[in-house]
Amino acid sequence: MREISTLAHAVEALARSARSTADLARWLARREHPADEIEVAIAKLTARGMLNDAEFALAFARSRAVGRGMSRRRIAGELARRGIAKEMADAAINEIMESENIDEREIVQAAGAKKFRSLTKLEPDVQRRRLYGFLARKGFASDLVRDTVRQLTQPTS
């Protein structure tokens, strides 16, 4: 049986899902492709426009911000784990937040309101603690989290 070339393997991986350059290089290395062949394959894919970290960062940021309601900080962290430079990640996130007219305050309030509905049977202190932890783990800024928790847990008169 003939082994698949590094370039063909990389193309197949990109056909299944978009990847950053660093992600693809790690993926190929885990499949024991030689480092020099990985480098050549990545250069060819980049030259052909099939591998572009800036486009990947934009698409990834859009899917996480619009589709999943993630915070800027969380998106930036995930992009960093995928090997995207901080400046490129920040530029992509800023562009998406502006072009999609996304307000992080609205995202945190929507996520908080949804979570709060599942906490209604709990004591008020437990509600606040769990809601705060949930929103903080989503990566929202502490002042946004604090304001949202306060707004959602205030007793209505």
Describe this structure in words.
It is built from nine helices and no strands. The protein is mainly α and 157 residues long. Helix 4 (53-67) packs across helix 6 and helix 5 (72-81) packs across helix 6 (86-99). The protein has helices at 6-16, 21-30, 35-47, 53-67, 72-81, 86-99, 104-117, 124-137, 142-153.
Can you describe this structure in just a few lines?
The chain is an all-alpha fold. The protein has helices spanning 6-16, 21-30, 35-47, 53-67, 72-81, 86-99, 104-117, 124-137, 142-153. Helix 1 packs across helix 3 (35-47), helix 2 (21-30) runs antiparallel to helix 3 and helix 4 packs across helix 6 (86-99).
Draw up the topology in text.
Layout: H1 6-16, H2 21-30, H3 35-47, H4 53-67, H5 72-81, H6 86-99, H7 104-117, H8 124-137, H9 142-153
Keywords:
157 residues; mainly alpha; elongated
**What's the multimeric state?**
single chain
Helix fraction by DSSP (H/I, runs of at least 4): over 70%
Which structural category do the helix and sheet elements fall into?
mainly alpha
Query: What is the CA-CA span between the terminal residues?
Result: 74 Å
The stretches of 5 or more residues where confidence is low (pLDDT under 50) are none
Number of DSSP strands?
0
Question: How many helices in DSSP terms?
Answer: 9
H/E element sequence:
HHHHHHHHH
**Biggest beta-sheet profile:** none
Compute the gyration radius: what is it?
A: 21 Å
Mean pLDDT over the residues: 91
Share of residues in strands: under 5%
What coarse outline follows from CA principal-axis ratios? elongated
